[in-house]
Design a protein that fits this description.
It is a single chain. With 319 residues, the chain is an alpha/beta fold. It has two domains: 157 residues, Alpha-Beta Barrel (TIM Barrel), CATH 3.20.20.100; 104 residues, no CATH class. Helices cover 41% and strands 8% of the residues. The protein is built from twelve helices and six strands. The protein has a six-stranded parallel sheet, covered by helices on one side. Helix 1 crosses helix 2. The longest helix is centred in the C-terminal third of the chain and has 19 residues.
């Protein structure tokens, strides 16, 4: 949320990062594609003030950067080029965790893992992981690493919230089986669990123009999300906490989760989220959440973060 996609004020964004670090947060996650590199530049400015050694720094590669069609994906060519661009924007000599942002059906996983392993050996990155990979592709990657003697994905970054629980069915158990760290994105479900949505509220988001299928209330799946949010708001009130605290506490309660990634755009939003780790959710509260949104359920399939081209491209279904 730093840069053109959210907060365009670099100095304010740096202050938010500094405040987070002062409160004990030591993991910063960004991506090359966020605000077309501007987010990495802002993080780089913050690191210059905070001190690089204090931070576990993560960024990602895959998304389209510029107009050149070759400046995207998971190929060796693009990964080895773009890591240097990220290092320059971040103002650092190394990245602690370099993540493949999405699967790339056009590139063999062996090629991707080989390129990432070489970057570890070169000292440009310390570890590498994946983001929004389906469970079977995570397993395939681990098999390829073992078979070829390559480095392996040590983390997975999936979408995970009370409203998008699909990863509980297969992905989270697979991550546990392979000893992977799990760092979920969008624990507030793209703002749905921020307190702005519910009966009698505006029910709007800054993201609605970019991803209307996740917010259009004329769609029954989004109406189901609104109904769930209304019920969750009542549950949070009865439990003596904010909806934000309930939402973040829910993701942190899963034994597979290492840390949930928050995305504050303002200092006020950061302050609202910092209290999420003050107390664990009780078993009774977690059971009531299960009644509102059953385990393993995505209320809207669009919230799963990535759809295989075999589903989205009609030509691949009707060959």
């Amino acid at each position: 949320m730093f840069g053109g996609w959210g907060n365009p004020d670099h100095d304010d964004s740096v202050r938010i990062i500094s405040r987070a670090v002062d409160e004990g947060i030591n993991f910063i996650d960004t991506a090359d594609v966020y605000s077309a590199g501007e987010s990495e530049e802002i993080v780089g400015k913050a690191l210059g003030e905070i001190g690089r050694e204090r931070i576990v720094l993560a960024t990602k590669v895959h998304g389209q950067m510029g107009e050149d069609p070759g400046n995207a994906g998971n190929s060796r060519r693009w990964i080895t080029m773009e890591v240097d661009n990220s290092l320059r924007r971040l103002g650092t000599d190394w990245i602690d965790l370099y993540q493949v942002h999405r699967p790339d059906p056009s590139t063999d996983i062996e090629e991707t893992l080989g390129a990432l392993t070489d970057l570890v050996r070169a000292g440009k990155i310390r570890y590498f992981g994946c983001s929004t990979f389906p469970a079977h592709q995570v397993v395939e990657a681990h098999w390829a690493s073992e078979r070829l003697g390559l480095g392996r994905f040590v983390t997975e970054q999936p979408p995970y919230s009370i409203l998008a629980r699909g990863v509980e069915a297969e992905l989270l158990p697979v991550a546990q089986a392979y000893g992977m760290g799990v760092i979920p994105w969008s624990p507030l479900a793209g703002g749905w669990l921020s307190g702005r949505f519910g009966a009698g509220k505006d029910n709007t988001s800054r993201r609605s123009e970019r991803v209307p299928d996740q917010y259009d209330l004329s769609l029954p799946e989004n109406q189901a999300k609104l109904d769930a949010v209304t019920a969750l708001g009542k549950l949070a009130e009865e439990a003596g906490m904010s909806l934000i605290e309930l939402a973040l506490g829910f993701t942190l309660a899963h034994p597979a989760v290492t840390a949930s990634i928050i995305g504050p755009r303002t200092m006020e939003q950061l302050e609202q989220q910092l209290t999420a780790t003050d107390g664990a959710l009780s078993a009774d509260v977690l059971d009531r959440i299960d009644e509102i949104v059953p385990p393993g359920t995505n209320l809207n399939a669009a919230d799963r973060g990535w759809t295989s081209p075999t589903l989205s491209d009609p030509a691949l279904r009707r060959r």
